[in-house]
Amino acid sequence: MSTAVRRDRLPAEASAAAPALPAFWRRPRPRRLFWQFLLIVLLTAALGWLAGNVQSNLERSRLAFGFDFLDDASKFFMGPNPYGYAPGDTVLDAFLAGIVNTIRVSALSIVLTTVLGTLLALMRLSRNWLVAQVAWLYVETMRNIPLLLQILFWHAILTHLLPNAREAWKPADDVYLSRKGLYLPDLVVEQGLTAALLALLGAGIAAWLLRRHAIRRRERVGHPGRLRWLGPALIVLLPPLAFLAAGGSLGLDRPSARGLGFEGGRWVSPEFVALLFALTIYQSAFAAETIRSGILGVRKGQIEAARSLGLKPSLVFRKIVMPQALRIIVPPLTSQYLSLTKQSSLAVAIGYPDVVRVSVAITSDTGRAVECIAIIMAVYLTLSLLTSLAMSVFNRRIAFVEK
Amino acid sequence: MPATFPPPAHGRPPTLPNPPDRAGPPRVERTLVQRNLAWARANLFAGPWNTLLTLLVVLLLLWTVPALLDWAVLDATMAPADIALCMERGGACWAMLQDTWRMILFGPYPPAEHWRPALAVSLFASLVVASLVPALWARAGGRRLLLAVWPPALLVLVALMHGGVAGLAVVETRLWGGLPLTVILASVGIAFAFLLSLALALGRQSSMPVVRIVCIAYIELMRGVPLITLLLMASILLPLTLPPDVTIHPYLRAQLAFILFFAAYMAEAVRGGLQAIPKGQYAAAKAMGLSYWQSMTRVILPQVLRMIIPSMVNIFISAFKDTSLVIVISMLDLLGTAKAATSNPDWWGLFIEPFTFISAIYLVVCSAMSWYSRLLERRYGTAGAHD
Description:
The complex is a heterodimer of chains A (403) and B (387).
Chain A: H1 9-17, H2 28-60, H3 91-125, H4 129-142, H5 147-161, E1 176-178, E2 181-184, E3 186-191, H6 193-221, H7 230-245, E4 249-253, E5 256-258, E6 261-263, E7 266-268, H8 270-296, H9 300-308, H10 313-343, H11 355-366, H12 369-399
Antiparallel strand pairs in A: 1-2, 2-7, 3-4, 5-6
Chain B: H1 32-43, H2 47-74, H3 83-89, H4 94-106, H5 115-132, H6 134-137, H7 140-162, H8 179-204, H9 209-224, H10 227-240, H11 250-276, H12 279-287, H13 292-307, H14 309-322, H15 334-342, H16 352-380
Helix pairs in contact in B: 4-15, 4-16, 5-7, 8-9, 8-11, 8-14, 9-11, 10-11, 11-13, 11-14, 12-13, 14-16
């Protein structure tokens, strides 16, 4: 709230002291009420007019607004997907599969973007001139070429330059790389998965408790104790042991050439890879700049103080620079990840079945344009809200360090 | 504690304190060779890790640069050639670009009239460049000159593109495409979105709750959804919301989506500037007896606009890049025409060349914009500290 808020009080007070009040329509309160009333009336009229048009247009094409079509069978074709949708399932299933696809590609890209962006930021800050220049060139090029162009480019590479399915490259046994995508042997767990997951959960909790104990101990006596390796060891060792103890066995689902394509195995579609590559390459250039400016934003005195206390350079970076830099980095990086998630909708241009692609296909199948658009908007608004919620929790945690 | 961040890839903490001293050690009288050697020792070979890194990068460059040169120059094919010759030589097929560049730049515009969009785009570009010279717009006289030149110039541009006057053949808007379409979408979009964003940002700061709530709802809604949904809405939903006898030109629909979308982002940038203005400025304007609109237009907004140049230019750059999204609603902007060129039967299967060509155009325009923004930042000392 700015001070502009109070602008009308002054004339009001002045006029209270004056003998004659200004005319009714010159007084601030009636004016404010009038403008707000006018805005409400205009907005309602405009929205009402648009809604009325929609209704009469829908009536003319014999469509009624409603979400009952979600239960109908969908004709939309989508390849193998994590959600397990197949043509013939309901429209709702198709949407859910699209949402899962959106989340899958965005989440993976966010992780890769963070890694690549951090690496690039460190490279740009490097004392090595050559390394800094290479990173600068990457950042300046990649962030100035439209994302959609990069997506189309990667997709063209993956679908033009790779061999046909019949002459697929075989970099290793049971691995096929062709225009149809990448086929890998899939790990199939036949038994003992639950035991392994439970063990992992238990080990995680135990490691967390041990770590907390070690920190308390260090605060009390100045040394964390000798059992520091126990937590990580539990996490690494316990799940496989539990898996073996439960009589677990692993199987491989190998892909095999069949007709013009392949069957079985795990399939990575060229659309997914193109989208993932382009999103990551494009966004990491922006992330690099955000992270770099965050690191540069840490005050020099902090680093000098830490060094004069005799901290090792790596400790200065981990314990002094990074915690403070993260406070600067996290808010802008959050909005960047949000925009990455939204930009994954460019998938529609190459046919990766994300939620927008599904929605466009369903719209042309059923003619339910209004409902489909409403669904997409609801999905993205929810995703935006959830991400910013998660990030604000994280942000509060790291911002709390400040006294 | 976020000890999760890996220590830097190489042995020294790169964040460590001062930005690398690129100027080299203090100047003593030394020869050129000595100076360069000292520079190299400080910036390329400081310590074993640093030397190793340098060698790695040099290896990488030795591996990529010659291959790139082979492709782009030595093995490349220029006209006259056909696709068979290009495939045989294996390098870049510049002959394809020599054949298709006009189609990529101007799309379905009649080839005999290509000089018109070419002239229009160059005229527009030179006008923009001329208007950006600070010596011109920083003075009142210069501003008056610009205000006098722009409206007739815009009329000339429209006349050039559309024709129908001075003996020029009429070219319907559905035949406009390629670079002119990208430029029109971006510049008209930026101009109108900017005006709308001022209103939205002021509305968001307003003391009237209804105005504030409407503006906040609008801004957050627009920022929450992808641009592509807006374009789809404009092309699928908008016709549904109008009476059946009213039709809107597809270009206008896309343009409307751009304006509505980017206005929300610009409004947030303006709000950042409004909040950064010291309260004393508002108070002083009020004490001078200025009305709300007077204090905004004479005192607050001029300072705000200068302060938000960096974030605004960033939005302009993304707006320019995001015009490429119109290919999703099958309009032929620069990316659309390049994509069309990749399915040209004469040059079937070639896509790197047209994509490289338009990448270069986007790269030049966007880099120029960010260079200009940095120039202004230095000139007016406005650090882009706030987003």
